[in-house]
Amino acid sequence: MKKFKYLFSVLLFVLLIYFYQNHIYYLIPYNPLKGTADNPYSCHFDLNYSDGVLTKVSHNLNSNTLIFKYFSDLNLIPLKKAANKEEIFEHKNDIHFSYRFRFGPPTSPKYYYIFINEIWLDNLSILSIRSNKPGFHNGYYKIIDSKFDYKYVNDLITNSQN
Questions:
Q1: Which helix (H) or strand (E) holds 44?
Q2: Which domain of life does the protein's organism represent (predicted)?
Q3: Is residue 162 over pLDDT 60?
């Protein structure tokens, strides 16, 4: 009887973990950028389109901090890649934005990048957020209460270069 209770407890625990990882996790708003307390050392912006790429770089700490704060204040929810394939990968327009934040100088032991990619012009509510920082929650996220304001962010980058 004790073996049955132990086996039932282990099985219930495994099922709860599975249910959380595959269902509940995707219902809870979560922004992986909120836990980053560092200020970005630089911000690289790419506007990708069929004829080429337009690249801008900002090394202005104040502008970089404002841009990163904008991204970290977004209300995001994680997306399952399998369940949201059409929303993530199918686009009528090939224009998309990419941002890369560098934290710290390359010689620093806390040196890492955060990439915010695949912000498609025809769907400004989906972001791909990735990092080489250990323990970071890489994945696709959906903005649930607004859309990405690329004009505001691009104005910050342009003004930082003046």
A1: strand 42-49
A2: Bacteria
A3: no
